[in-house]
Specification:
The complex is a heterodimer of chains A (197) and B (175).
Chain A (H helix, E strand, L loop, with lengths): L6 H26 L3 E3 L3 E5 L1 H8 L5 E11 L3 E8 H11 L6 H26 L3 E3 L3 E6 H12 L6 E10 L4 E9 L1 H8 L7
Antiparallel strand pairs in A: 1-7, 2-7, 3-4, 3-5, 3-6, 4-8, 7-8
Helix pairs in contact in A: 1-4, 2-5
Chain B lengths: L1 E2 L5 E4 L5 E7 L3 E7 L4 E7 L15 H14 L8 E6 L11 H15 L4 E6 L5 E6 L5 E5 L4 E5 L21
Parallel strand pairs in B: 1-3, 6-7
Antiparallel strand pairs in B: 2-5, 3-8, 4-5, 4-6, 8-9, 9-10
Helix pairs in contact in B: 1-2
The chains are: A alpha+beta (197), B alpha+beta (175).
């Protein structure tokens, strides 16, 4: 049973992602004291293998911060931060990159961005959502994304990825902000908008 | 270079080719080589069991193991000379879900045992991502973690018998 999405549904999801990532960008900007630019979100409904490729090179070393979602929507928020980006963020926060404190700071960024995203989704859909404590892994991008996506889908057949780039002004820091709803999570998002299949 | 993406199987007998499965998280890279014949195959396995609706052979352990064996043999490998190595099956995050990596590793091992093949070497479990490479021609199989050292699972340049050695390798066969 492979869900297929209409243009109308994809547009609605793009709008959700836009607002959610916009909130996250504002929160990050306040935390860092810097301007944070935002790209228009991509909404990709792809087989898992292509969804992973769309996030970047599979053996590229990257820091992934995962904020699992709980409540009315099943899924997770994933931040993908390059090595350079992690260094820049830690520097802006006055902590040493790669240290326990550095990892803690990145988890905290995950927390704040995840929460602001959730608040946006909750207010748009009227659903109850709560973030769980963030997890962090610095490892190969393919391993991180594929493993996470597989926890959200039974079949790994068609995966929905909602992805924006947050760019910190004047820093080599571009964060991929990925919303990965579970198989059921997608209709959880679409139903309150009157767009469920 | 033969990149083997999730759910794919690539087989080659062209010396100098390299088969690579990058960024193995909970996925399993299964390599089969016949060093004598110079044939090698690599499967990038995603889930333990296929379903009625999805039967892509490289994706599911229950289909990938027999499919990979079949394809390397059709390319000229001899079944009794096949050496198998596994990598991957990690648990990258403790998300309270089932450990898909461990289930994948178990399913692949069971599939190999059912087919009468021993596991020559394996690097599975843990919480780190891995990249697996197979050198077609000499049949060398290696694994590397991000920022880690290269581990040789099968040294193709090592001489000696092409049958699996009895010591420490027949993990799947005694059942």
């Amino acid at each position: 049973m492979t869900p297929r999405y209409t243009e109308l549904q994809l547009d609605a999801l793009r709008e959700l992602a836009n607002i959610a990532s916009g909130n996250a960008a504002t929160a990050l900007s306040q935390m860092l004291g810097r301007e944070v630019g935002l790209t228009v979100p991509r909404v990709l409904a792809l087989p898992l293998v292509d969804a992973v490729d769309a996030c970047g090179s599979p053996d590229e070393s990257i820091t992934g911060v995962v904020i699992p979602l709980e409540g009315d929507i099943d899924g997770l928020v994933l931040l993908l931060i390059s090595t350079e980006g992690a260094d820049a963020l830690c520097r802006l926060l006055g902590v040493e990159a790669g240290s326990d404190i550095g990892d803690s700071a990145l988890r905290e960024i995950g927390n704040i961005l995840g929460t602001s995203c959730l608040n946006a989704l909750a207010s748009m859909t009227g659903l109850n959502l709560c973030p769980c404590p963030p997890h962090l892994s610095t490892d190969m991008l393919g391993a991180i994304v594929s493993s996470l996506a597989l926890t959200q889908t039974e079949s790994a057949d068609l995966v929905l990825v909602l992805d924006s780039e947050l760019d910190v002004a004047d820093e080599p820091c571009s964060i991929s902000f990925v919303l990965l709803p579970s198989d059921g999570g997608v209709s959880d998002l679409l139903t309150p908008l009157g767009l469920a299949a | 270079m033969g990149s083997v993406r999730m759910g794919e199987i690539v087989v080659s007998k062209r010396a100098g080719d390299e088969l690579v499965a990058r960024g193995l998280g909970s996925c399993i890279g299964l390599a089969l080589v016949d060093r004598s014949a110079g044939v090698a195959g690599l499967a990038h396995i995603v889930l333990p069991e296929s379903s009625e609706t999805d039967r892509q052979p490289g994706k599911f352990a229950d289909l990938a193991v027999p499919e990979l064996i079949d394809r390397v043999c059709r390319a000229g490998a001899s079944r009794r000379r096949l050496e198998a190595a596994l990598a991957g099956g990690a648990r990258m995050f403790e998300l309270g879900e089932l450990d898909i990596g461990a289930r994948n590793a178990d399913a692949v091992r069971k599939g190999l045992a059912t087919s009468g093949l021993a596991v020559h070497a394996a690097e599975t479990g843990g919480s780190r991502g891995r990249t697996m490479r197979v050198s077609v021609g000499d049949g060398t199989i290696t694994v590397k973690e991000a920022g880690g050292e290269l581990t040789i699972l099968l040294d193709g340049s090592a001489g000696g018998a092409h049958l699996p050695r009895a010591s420490a390798t027949l993990e799947g066969a005694h059942r």
